[in-house]
Amino acid sequence: MIEMKNLEKLTNIIESILFVSGTQVAIVDIADKLEASEKEINEAIKKLKEKYSGDGGIQLLTFNKKWKGEVLMAGYKGDIRQFIEGASAIDRLTENSHVLIAEACAHAPMTEDIGRVKIPRLLRKKVGEALHIDMVSGSDFPKDLSKYDLIIHCGACMFNRKHVLSRLESASMQQIPMTNYGITLAHLMGILDKIVY
Questions:
Q1: Full residue range of the structural domain in which residue 48 is found
Q2: Is 119 part of a structural domain of the chain?
Q3: Terminal CA-to-CA distance of the chain, rounded, Å?
Q4: pLDDT of 8 higher than 90
Q5: Tens of pLDDT, residues 74-132
Q6: Are 136 and 170 in contact (CB under 8 A)?
Q7: Cβ distance 115 to 103 under 8 Å?
Q8: Are residues 43 and 88 in the same domain?
Q9: What's the pLDDT tens digit per position in 42-85?
Q10: CA nearest 49: which of 67, 23, 30, 64?
């Protein structure tokens, strides 16, 4: 059994991989990329299944020893290249920067909610506690994005691809980088280059 701290880190990394990939990922491939045993990977996935077992709208699916994060599929719900490029803006953020976190739905947040808790905590850890973060949900996406240095969008399980692309276009026209939750987590954890997309 792996130590709790290492299990938590492994679980967070696997969470990012599943949500960024947009396709099923074999346990053996995850183990190989992360230099971990299949037993360790299965233990971390078990923790993820417990985390997402409620009504949060996120499902972990398995088929033939392959796993998939069902809703945060950057390749299907947006432009993955633009999301990856947008994530590079994270490295340019300062405590004076403004970040917009946009959720498609207005669901009741889960404990350790990705957009409202996990990402803000990781960003502030990297940049500083004074980082300005605004949250919007549903159709409350602002028309004027000029005050933001970065937009981080959810996986858009409640929106179709056209809707997400229109938000990407709006951000692009205003020269504001935009990424999504999964890409953000992978970037912050330093594993974006290990993900096949």
A1: 4-71
A2: yes
A3: 31
A4: no
A5: 555 667 788 889 999 999 999 999 999 998 876 666 666 788 888 999 999 999 999 99
A6: no
A7: yes
A8: no
A9: 888 888 777 766 544 455 555 445 554 433 345 556 677 888 89
A10: 67
The string of DSSP letters for 71-137 reads S--HHHHS-HHHHHHHHGGGGG--TT-EEEEEESS-PPPPTT-IIIIIHHHHHHHHH-TT-EEEEEE
Closest CA to 90 of 195, 10, 185: 185
Secondary structure class of 63 (helix, strand, coil): strand
Give me the sheet containing 178-180, strands edge to edge. Answer: 132-137, 98-103, 150-153, 178-180
% of the chain residues with pLDDT over 90: 31
Tokens representing 51? 């985390």
**Pairing mode, strands 25-26 and 66-69:** antiparallel
Residue 132's φ and ψ, nearest 5 degrees, are -85, 125
Residue 30 lies in a domain: yes
Number of Cβ within a 10 Å radius of residue 78: 26
More confident residue, 178 or 182: 178
